[in-house]
Request: fold
Amino acid sequence: MTALQEAMKINIENLELARSDRLRERLDIAARLRCTEHDQPIFAVSIHGLENGWFDAQWTTCCEKLEHQAVAIVKDRC
Ligand SMILES: [Zn+2]
Reply:
């Protein structure tokens, strides 16, 4: 395993959300996830806003399994 790992690309459309420590913390955790099946990290995430206390996130991952893990981290109620 190499020490060099491509960072997860993060796109946040709402400036206020970009400043949210809570969101940053969760994205940090998600960025460390790795698919057990494909040995891939999450490629990218877009945060579109906050809906009823939930972050509206769109993930780019190798498979649904990894996406579900990411969603579980970020979609925790705020
Ligand atoms: Zn996978």
